[in-house]
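Run: sequence + iron/sulfur cluster -> complex structure.
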Amino acid sequence: MTNRPVYYLWSFLLILFTVIGFLILYFRTTQGLIITNLNNIIGWGLWVSFYIFFIGLSMGCYLIFSLGYVLDFKKFKSLGPLALYSALICLITGFLFILIDIGHMGRFWTVFINRNTTSILSWELHLYVVYLLIIIIQLWFLLRKDILNHLYKSRKESFFTKILLQNRELSSFNWERDSTIIKNIGYIGIPLAIAVHGGTGAIFAVIKARSFWNTGLFPIVFLVSASVSGVALQIFLLTLFKRGKKNLIKSLYNVLLILILFDLVLFLSQFIVGIYSDLPGQTSILQILTTGSFSKLFWLGQIGVGIFIPLLIFFLDFNKYTLAYMVGALSSLIGVFVTRMNLVIPQLTIPVLNGLVEAYESARVTNVYIPSTIEWIFSFGILLFSTLIFLYGLYLLPIFSDAS
Amino acid sequence: MNQDKIDRRKAILGLGLTGMGMAFGELLRVSLNESDKWTKYPSSKKQQYAMLINLDLCIGCNSCTIACKQENHTPPGVQYNIVLKKREGTYPQCKERYLPRPCMHCEKPPCVKVCPVGATKKRKDGIVDIDYNKCIGCRYCLTACPYGARAYDFGENYYTPPNSFEKARSYEYGNEWVREKGKSPINNVRKCHFCLHRIKKGLEPACVQSCMAQARTFADINQVGNAITTNIANENFWRLKDELGTFPSVLYVGKF
Ligand code: SF4
Ligand code: SF4
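>> structure
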């Protein structure tokens, strides 16, 4: 919270990117989805994959925060602030991705006035807002002691100081209550986080037209792989910023492995039931994944990067190197993202009726989808923007003050 | 003190579980009642426009596809009616079969259920309607339709700049639409509306009128004494993907 020039540099960069971002958003509003390679057979693509990835990431981080602060696992308590803060940023990133994915972006806010009680998506969007508020409130109570202390010490007359301190002496604040408040909100927060991401899975699972999605297992798969990504992100951040004791990271990594294996079990279960039942809707998608157009993504991304490398790092016992953990965590993160793409896109490449693609000649009626360059540019733009806000907040807020 | 706290927690947990139980029970009650309907068809006595397509008469000429395009001024990639083809055997012993597919105007439409803003609704006359001014273009309905009947308007045109045909008004869902950049129906999901504007004038949908084999019949399913009701009474029809419980209002006769 010191170091003026660095602060200005950050602020400048952030503002610059925000301005560029809004210009690009304007471009997106005027052009519509014509800039994407989506089509009328494959209506959801890269951005939706990113969206569910980040909502899941947010839930995973939130659960890690809750381990320490709500469920009283003392060991993980030091992770709390970072985990909660990253849950917030991931949620916002997820929002941005769903925002640019909708056709009439300007009508986004109408989802809060035109409700549809039978729509999972409608419920989800409302839950996101509640979840966002809960994270913000908890973050405030988690950090307010440090923030107010700092403000008090610096004694600068600014807008924030006035609002937050309200001319009170520090001793008049009741810090003792804070952790109880965090805990009690957490009792709502945990089921809510699970509902938020289980619901994201349910968006897909309730579609009876798509048999690979339409299983009760699907939302659970979402939850478990989201937990994988949440733990992986925490390991990655801790090793990157060189925080956290080594044995803490080690035990986190063990948790990660257990979750990866659990995720694998769920996936195998879906896979085997699919193969065994011999239904065309099931086998065709497994064929696309294992030998068809998605086989590279599947074997290299989902299995290789997502499962094999993290396992390898565990078994080779690179105890001395935190770098190894970092690599393992990062590769598991990438693996989960690829899994997300594999959950969404291959199912859509199978038209709901035989001959649907052939019946009508058009570039927008095809079962091939390769994200366009602009889709990637937008995605990287959002990722960059989120990273910047993340770092900026890390710099401003006392996230690490009691972590290490 | 501590004891009190634990009791309170238990009470909250208990209340939460009871709430969930009740919600689940309600869901069960509703869906069981619904499943009762599955045995009867049509499931209600309400008005329901329906189409009967005789596949033995269809020659696969696609004039319905063209008529639809002309009537609704649909852009490239957006097509409300298509004709699916199936080939059997190899030359010279081969057959081709056709299946025209408009929107089924399902009695229990999955697309209506999923729309986050309620932009797509079932009208009183049974037509599944999209409010283009409400639709946010999320494409959830497009993914959820089991018949691939929906298409997203990406804003593309056949000609640049669009010619007079493309710029002309279309009359969907009883409103007038001119495709202009960034305005509905561009960036919306679109689909067949049984030519609602023509029905209102007492005409048949364009595809029905243009079919030279007269393979299509259009009527209100619950009106007595028309071609469709006779077929229903004789159980002489089949529906696409009947097992999904969507109750399509487009009925087929003959083989595909
Ligand atoms: S055919 Fe598709 S778009 Fe038409 S009503 Fe049924 S689910 Fe909706
Ligand atoms: S695309 Fe439009 S009509 Fe379809 S679900 Fe989304 S908001 Fe509803």
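>> summary
Residues B 103-106, 109-111, 128, 145, 147, 149-150, 191, 246 surround iron/sulfur cluster (ligand 1) (CB under 6 Å). The first strand of chain B starts at residue 49 and ends at 54.
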